[in-house]
Amino acid sequence: MADAPYGQIVIDFDNDPTGQLQQPGMWRWTHEAIDVKCLYGHVSVLGNDFDIDDFGNVTPSVECPAEGCDFHFHIRLVGWPGKKENNA
């Protein structure tokens, strides 16, 4: 089974102290996990310590693991198909 194409994420820009974040981040459901691309293009995986509600809201906030990256926001996965067992 092929991985899904990336979809957009919506970011809580109230938490952007710089006001510089312009482009959307991305997400996709692979055959093994949910990948999230931060606004700077770094890819991370949402593990079982994240919850995704029926509307695609992710809790807790998502922090990019790339060294030096300041991406740390509450996000919503646009186009999320609804709750999935084990979130992955």
- Mass-distribution shape: globular
Low-confidence stretches: none
Q: How many domains would you count in the coordinates?
A: 1
Helix content estimate = under 10%
List the helices and strands in order.
EEEEEEEEE
Mean pLDDT, rounded to whole units?
76
Q: In DSSP terms, counting alpha (H) and pi (I) runs of 4 or more, how many helices?
A: 0
Major β-sheet annotation: 5 strands, antiparallel
Major sheet: arrangement of strands: 4-3-2-1-9
Count the E strands.
Answer: 9
- Compute the CA-based radius of gyration: 12 Å
**Structural class designation:** mainly beta
What does this structure look like?
There is one protein chain. This protein is mostly beta strands and 88 residues long. The protein has one domain (7-87). It has strands at 7-11, 26-29, 34-37, 43-46, 51-52, 58-59, 62-63, 72-73, 75-77. A hairpin with a 4-residue loop joins β2 and β3 (34-37). The model has no long low-confidence stretch (mean pLDDT 76).
Which characteristics define this entry?
single chain, 88 residues, mainly beta, two-stranded antiparallel ribbon, 0% helix
Question: What's the quick description here?
Answer:
The chain has 88 residues and is an all-beta fold. The chain has strands at residues 7-11, 26-29, 34-37, 43-46, 51-52, 58-59, 62-63, 72-73, 75-77.
Task: Reconstruct the topology from this structure.
Layout: E1 7-11, E2 26-29, E3 34-37, E4 43-46, E5 51-52, E6 58-59, E7 62-63, E8 72-73, E9 75-77
Antiparallel strand pairs: 1-2, 1-9, 2-3, 3-4, 5-6, 7-8
